[in-house]
Amino acid sequence: MPEGKNRIMTRKLYQDDAYLFVFTAEVLECRARDNENEVILDATAFYPESGGQLYDLGSLDNHAVVNVYENDREQIIHLVQDGVFRPGQTVAGKIDQARRLDNMRKHTGQHILSQAFVRAADARTVSSHLSDIECTIELAREDLTPEDFDRVESAANDIVRQNLTVTTSWYDREQLQTMPIRKIPNREGRLRIVRIGDFDYTACGGTHCGHTGEIGLIKIIGSAKIRGHIRVTFLVGQPALTDYQQKHRTTAELSARLTCHHTDLVEVIERKTDQIISSRRETAQLRNQLFERELPEIMNTAEKVGAVGLVVRETGSDDMKVLKDQALKITGEYTAVAVLYADDKLLVASSKDSGLHAGDLIRHLAERHDLKGGGNPVLAQCGGIDPARMTDIVESTVQLIRERLDR
Ligand SMILES: [Zn+2]
Hints:
37% of the residues lie in helices and 30% in strands. By secondary structure, it is an alpha+beta fold. The protein folds into 3 domains: 3-95, Elongation Factor Tu (Ef-tu), domain 3 (Beta Barrel), CATH 2.40.30; 101-256, 2-Layer Sandwich (Threonyl-tRNA Synthetase, Chain A, domain 2), CATH 3.30.980.10; 274-406, Diaminopimelate Epimerase, Chain A, domain 1 (Roll), CATH 3.10.310. 30% of the residues are buried. The structure holds zinc ion. Zinc ion binds at residues 107, 111, 194, 204, 206, 208.
């Protein structure tokens, strides 16, 4: 690197001390960008967005730092709201400590989880991403079992409980030959190696906890296949505990309502779902049987428009199959038009010899009342109708049918 560029690199104070939350530094450059300032200092404790780890927030001379990033000259740029910053001026920096500690826990947790995947499931991490709550890593494997995830998770949390010391040191490339390093970047020059006891050695420029016990719970909460890899979603520290609290509340509530142990919930819900499906089927059959028995009487009392019987009925079942079966039964046996409705559904069926195009009618109706619907000449339907408007819409449908049959 040319000497001139070397001179104005930002000194990364966070690499010497991840627990440095206040510092002073000299302003090297300041440029206005829209309503904000891009401020470059000779040294900073602000971590820039990098390596999947989130940037720091905080303040410079009490002006909010809203973003931090690094340019290709290894200068760290602080995006600062308001304020006036002049080259040569000394500024006081303050890091949002809670956010930084949270990021350190997630990031150190990710190192541990990645090594645990190597050791317990032979799965290498190819990329990682940490966000405010959920973190992800992508593994160079196509398949892992739930048992693999359990084993890896247990191994990772065991390292947390051992409260191993995390250290960082700089090495020349040649010195690394004998070290069991998980990931070596292609970058030239000396490399910063982050070591978690004898468990994990990784080349990394980020911020890490001093001891693994600070991290807290590491919990895998999901996995998905993506681009021939597996993407694992996990939580670290307080978000993991919050997730457990929420899930515990939900399962406790469900267990109480279904009067079973939480480990039996899936089985009990499956059984109840099967019962609901079969009783719905049985109800539909009974309704149809009852309907068939009542049909002659229904047709006797139906309004006649010319030679066409006009049947208007609320079915009492929101099962679309019941509505269809009953409507087609009417129009299959009689010269008739049937308007059947229940809850938010309305269906119109017409026998071929009635002269009414059910699909056209429903399209006209849908347009008039701003509804969604359609169908073919003999069967058409509307759904998602506000039940409070149903009476009006049925009335409007019947009116339209009368007009069309009268023509
Ligand atoms: Zn790291």
